[in-house]
Amino acid sequence: MQRFYSYNQYMREKFGCKMYKLSLSISNTCPNRDGTKGAGGCIFCSEGGSGDFAAAYCKSITEQIEDAKKLVSRKNRGGKYIAYFQSFTSTYIAPQKLRDALNEVLKDKDICAVSIATRADCLGDEILAVLSEFSYKIPITVEMGLQTIHDKTARLINRCCDLNEYEASLEKLKALGIEVVYHIIAGLPFETEEEFLETVRYVGKSGADGIKIQLLHILKGTELEKMFNRGEFKVFSKEEYFTLVAKALEILPPDMVIHRLTGDGAKKILIAPLWSADKKDVLNSLNRYLEENDILQGKKISDAL
Ligand code: SF4
């Protein structure tokens, strides 16, 4: 049976209204940039640490929340908010800093949930204790950047984090009742379609609650851009990507929440694929493609993600 359980649908069921993400910044580095695990970062990651929409790191969390609310105010029709700690590695900070940030979030009664993007190797006992403490006050989701299950690709992209670290962190988070989302990338250099679908299969069976499928973006100033300019690999066409997304949706279990099916890179530094810059067009085209292939069963992806 074909199926699709969108993040929007999941959040509406949970909170009874549309939820908007407020992109916030609590960290300005990661162990892959400061030499702890690696240097130079993952080859696809931009200077902004995969959070180019995040409010300025130097501002307080309360100020960032106000700024981010202004950004979504035009489209917000009575919805509530998710505080989304997006940029760099949001748990690569002192536990007290995370506690202070979450206390600031709790002061805003329109924020109903927290989402934290991080690495599997940045979830030590003290950080987990803070997450556990606050998970009794507000629903928390932890998003881990897995990207791929294949060691050769993990080495190529300079992830510097082993698959068993993801598995250990997922187990600990789930034991604390915290939801886990895996972020994976479609179109990584030299990965075959079957290798990507193996990653999808793995996530589907991992015990994670949700998945974000990100189309590989080539961003200005990255190592990936240099490889791309040397002609070492190609990016997906729209049709190739849609075909792959349809196959991934067929594989995933029906109760897995689909958080994202497109990229979300900053347009001003996007090198390729340029068709992905028009998010509305991509969502509409993907919607049509999935409808034609009976993946959506009457639901609209543009409402969903
Ligand atoms: S993707 Fe995450 S771990 Fe990799 S360099 Fe960027 S911020 Fe660091």
Write a structural description.
This protein is of the alpha/beta class and 305 residues long. It has one domain (5-304): TIM Barrel. The protein contains 11 helices and 10 strands. It has helices at residues 7-15, 61-72, 95-106, 125-135, 151-156, 163-175, 193-205, 223-229, 238-251, 279-292, 301-304, and strands spanning 5-6, 19-24, 80-85, 111-118, 140-147, 179-186, 210-215, 218-219, 257-260, 270-272. It has an 8-stranded parallel beta sheet with strand order 1-9-7-6-5-4-3-2, with helices on both faces. Strands 8-10 form a two-stranded antiparallel ribbon. Helix 4 links the parallel strand 4 (111-118) and strand 5 (140-147). Helix 3 (95-106) runs parallel beside helix 4. The radius of gyration is 18 Å and the shape is globular. Iron/sulfur cluster (SF4) binds next to loops.
The stretches of 5 or more residues where confidence is low (pLDDT under 50) are none
CATH architectural type: Alpha-Beta Barrel
Total count of strands: 10
Strand content: 15-25%
Helix/sheet category? alpha/beta
Order of helices and strands: EHEHEHEHEHHEHEEHHEEHH
Helix content: 25-40%
Radius of gyration: 18 Å
What is the molecular shape? globular
N- to C-terminal separation? 22 Å
Task: Please give the count of helices.
Answer: 11
Hetero compounds = iron/sulfur cluster
Any key phrases for this structure?
binds iron/sulfur cluster, globular, two-stranded antiparallel sheet, 305 residues, 38% helix, 8-stranded parallel β-sheet, 17% strand, 11 helices, TIM Barrel, alpha/beta
